[in-house]
Amino acid sequence: MQRGLRTAEVSSTMHGQPLIEMEQVEKAYRTPAGDFRALKGIDLEVQKGEFVGVVGKSGAGKSTLVNMVTGIDKPTSGHIRVGSHAVHDMTEDQVASWRGSNVGVIFQFFQLLSMLTVAQNVMLPMDFAGLYSSPKERRERALYLLEQVEIAEQADKLPSAVSGGQRQRVAIARALANDPMFLAADEPTGNLDSRTSEAVFRVFEKLVDEGKTILMVTHDLDLASRVTRTVHLADGEFVSNLSQHRSPREVAYA
Question: How far apart are CA 163 and CA 110, in angstroms?
Fold first, then answer.
């Protein structure tokens, strides 16, 4: 694969219509010293079923990029499309409704509600989106998802009663609650030890094997080497593109 091509160009030459598309996305923040450009003309395409890792030093713009794709923040300029949705054109209410039904977001620090049980935390997005017709159906789906991430036996415990790795599995199950179009994971293993990080990463690999699309920010270059494609940000710009276009398992054991 030739280096130096824009990420969008590399992806579009090998696939059809992308699931995620960013075109010339800029993000600037006002500071006392003037505007700070966190993203500078970003072009990115992510195909359905890809596992894309975003790497770079602290302050490179990785989290800002994820916030743009998920609608958590708005670009200063440029276009962002996910499926048929023009995320950059949505109002705050529209993007909140869209995100609740279409995007699963996983953070470094879990962000589980401490007063709710593990199962209730997974049910929460279903409640907000009004999906599934009864509490019984929502609990059944929560238990199914907890089983998929191998933590169903902890369903009725509070988050404080399970380990950090188990909490991150709960967060993954919660992100999957509404069967989202894609998962956005911002340093999902950054608060975990290496053994637990490996276990969580294997959950992501399984999800990709089953057809899920994942965009993952990580500082762990070992994990980043095992995704289907890695993009490298520095000072708000892509500086290289390592496009493997193989399954995570092929990359892991090559």
Answer: 11
